Amino acid sequence: MEPRVLQPVNDQNTSENAGTPKKKELTLANFDIGKPLGKGKFGNVYLAREKTSKFIVALKVLFKSQLQNSGVEHQLRREIEIQSHLQHENILRMYQWFHDKKRIFLVLEFAAKGELYKILQREKRFDEKTTAKYVYQLANALKYCHSKKVIHRDIKPENLLISLIGDLKIADFGCSPAVQWGQRTTLCGTLDYLPPEMIEGSFHDENVDLWSLGVLCYELLVGNPPFETESNSETYRRITRVDIRYPSYLLRHDPRKRISPDAVMTHHWIVANHTPKDPPRH
Ligand code: AMP
């Protein structure tokens, strides 16, 4: 893999280089490494500070040998390609990446409050205000992704991080090749969040993310996902039948009947519970 500089790590916080995207090759020596933030499948994530700019980031360290053994180098390459080109307040920024002989380092935006999944475990469920905020912000990020022809396909609390000021950030694009709509039909998501069309192996498009948004909204309010059962086959059955008694414009079997991200953001329940910093313009 050739080293490539996607964006200067200190592009945001020095007046010196403001507006001039000066590209420089980074190495591990550029960083002071802090506490571990978490453990992933292929390596660890550390708090880190770029020495010159003092810019705080999360440094994700992936071992090449593990990536090779699992045959996921291609997937990682795509993930880097996608995430580094998405710039939205509710999508975790990937500033740069670099590598040495054994490892690949991803320089990521630091999300101080960590995984939404862990916060939910701690709090059990959220009130309507908090849920409406997260659903609004996720709809906003999905609207942006879909406008760039990127389907996430794996929206779930484990893949959502929360910043210091409590904003939601989509963090993981490992399942979302930027493909023509409907090209891929492989199962990628977690069972509880999978839409009927993916379970049934039929055509699917960006509307899969809107189903998952509906599942997330339910789980944040109630404390567990709507189709959860003891067995996978029973969960499959409940999803395909949309076996749920709960008013939802997102949990619709027909993907075309799910409301759009825009309609989510202006839905009366969202509007009644959340006032965005930058209201949507129409
Ligand atoms: P991952 O390998 O992406 O699953 O990351 C492992 C764990 O590290 C996650 O569950 C988070 O708790 C933590 N983590 C990953 N990325 C970040 C980040 N950008 N900011 C803060 N914590 C993170």
From TrEMBL:
Biased composition (Polar residues): 9-18
Keywords, alphabetical: ATP-binding, Kinase, Nucleotide-binding, Serine/threonine-protein kinase, Transferase
Pfam annotation, one family: Pkinase
Its EC number(s): 2.7.11.1
Protein's UniProt keywords contain Glycosyltransferase: no
Residues that, per the record, bind ATP: 60
Classification via InterPro entries: Aur-like, Kinase-like_dom_sf, Prot_kinase_dom, Protein_kinase_ATP_BS, Ser/Thr_kinase_AS
CDD domains, sorted: STKc_Aurora
Domain of life (superkingdom): Eukaryota
Annotated catalysed reactions: L-seryl-[protein] + ATP = O-phospho-L-seryl-[protein] + ADP + H(+); L-threonyl-[protein] + ATP = O-phospho-L-threonyl-[protein] + ADP + H(+)
Enzyme class: transferase
Family matches, as PROSITE patterns: PROTEIN_KINASE_ATP, PROTEIN_KINASE_DOM, PROTEIN_KINASE_ST
Keyword Nucleotide-binding assigned: yes
Family (UniProt): Belongs to the protein kinase superfamily. Ser/Thr protein kinase family. Aurora subfamily.
Protein name: Aurora kinase
Organism in which the protein naturally occurs: Mya arenaria
